[in-house]
Amino acid sequence: MPNIDIRRPHSLSGTDAHTVIDHVATRMREKFQVETQWKSDGTLGFERPGISGKIAIGADEIHVSAQLGMLLSPLKGMIEQEIRRKLDEHFS
C-alpha cells in the first residue's frame, strides 16, 4: 500500500496548532466523509474506506502520515498535493 508522509514546520503554540487541526478535521469530515478522533497521545487519527492515517502536532512541526488502499493508490499524487496545499494555507 502506498504511504503519504508529509512534515510541515510551524511556529504556533500547541493550543493554536490544535485549533487549526480541529478546523482541518472538520473540513475533512465534511468534504471526504472521513472519521476523525483525537488519540490519547495527542494525534488526530482519521479513517475511511481506502485511507487511514494520523496528524501529529509537534512543538515545531505538523506530521501527516497516511496509508492508501489499492483503489486510492492512483490518486496518491493528487491527495498529497491537497494535503500540502491545506498545510501551506494554515501553517505558512
Automatic annotation (TrEMBL):
Checking Pfam families in the record gives: PHA_gran_rgn (PF09650)
Superkingdom of this protein's organism: Bacteria
Under the heading InterPro entries, the entry gives: PHA_gran_rgn
Q: Which NCBIfam families match?
A: PHA_gran_rgn
This protein is called Polyhydroxyalkanoic acid synthase
Q: Which organism is it from?
A: Dyella choica
